[in-house]
Design a protein that fits this description.
By secondary structure, the protein is α/β, with parallel strands linked by helices. It has 9 helices and 5 strands. The chain has helices spanning 9-17, 37-58, 119-133, 143-160, 165-170, 189-210, 213-224, 231-242, 246-252; strands at 22-24, 30-32, 66-70, 92-94, 101-105. A 5-stranded mixed β-sheet has the order 1-2-3-5-4, covered by helices on one side. It is globular. It binds zinc ion.
Length: 256
């Protein structure tokens, strides 16, 4: 690591992974390359607002975390669970770093659609929600339930922030045959996006119909589960957390 400046072990570690990167303090600090300082400040502000909203909605404090805003040229060096680097442009949460990290690409993959004034916040808050949810062990669940919570939490935070969520939803390409539960684990980035957009529509509609309290109920119910959550149990957990009329409402939704 050579003549790296920095008095703490952590600063050295960051410098070792991403040489020349700087660090912006905040509730979720952001490590970034000097030419992306403005983007780092935006991310820092979004993370601060998102952490406050998610703490309130879930009734838990924010997890110890930092964000790595990574230049495209450095994507191959990011911390990750696997040997191989992840596809470029896809943000992710990883516990392979200490503290755990939200890895944010300089250039977001073109798979992210639609692009509106809400896209950036939705993407960052989705990954932040994963970090909140993984602070306690989560049971294995169907893919749709695993992604429903972060999608709906990011939608709830976006509504709170007054960002144009409605316009964002209107711009989604509809795949009439795609439902939340038809999605398997393996999928290309475009399929993954279509799936996430169906979840976003369903989650936003649920928040509008039932309020955001069910998100806390559902998260705490999942944290309390000890066994693998199968399809039937997953549907029951979601319906019960919505409250009276939840089961009927879910059955009436084309996304489900
Ligand atoms: Zn996710």
């Amino acid at each position: 690591m050579g003549n790296v400046a920095g008095s703490t072990v952590r600063e050295r570690r960051e410098a070792a992974i991403l040489p020349g990167y700087e660090r912006l303090g905040g509730p979720v600090p952001v490590v970034y390359p000097p030419n992306l300082r403005e983007r780092a400040a935006e991310a820092r502000d979004l993370l601060e607002a998102g952490a406050a909203a998610l703490s309130e909605i879930l009734g838990v404090g924010p997890p110890g975390l930092e964000a790595l805003l990574v230049a495209d040229a450095d994507w191959g060096r990011t911390p990750r669970e696997n040997e191989r680097s992840y596809p470029p442009g896809l943000p992710y949460f990883t516990r392979a770093a200490t503290p755990p990290a939200l890895v944010l690409p300089e250039t977001l993959s073109p798979a992210f659609r639609p692009r509106t004034d809400a896209t950036g916040a939705l993407v960052i808050w989705h990954e932040l929600a994963h970090a909140f949810l993984l602070r306690k062990p989560l049971p294995r669940t169907p893919a749709w339930l695993r992604e429903f919570l972060p999608q709906t939490l990011s939608a709830a935070a976006t509504r709170r922030a007054g960002l144009p969520l409605e316009r964002h939803l209107e711009e989604i390409d509809r795949h009439s045959d795609l439902t939340v539960r038809s999605f398997g684990d393996r999928a290309r980035a475009e399929e993954q996006m279509a799936f996430q957009n169906v979840l976003l529509s369903l989650g936003t509609a649920a928040v509008e119909e039932f309020g955001e309290e069910f998100l806390r109920t559902l998260a705490h119910a999942l944290w309390a589960e000890r066994d693998i959550v199968d399809e039937k149990r997953a549907e029951g957990l979601l319906a019960d957390s919505l409250g009276p009329g939840g089961r009927e409402w879910l059955a009436s939704r084309s996304e489900f």
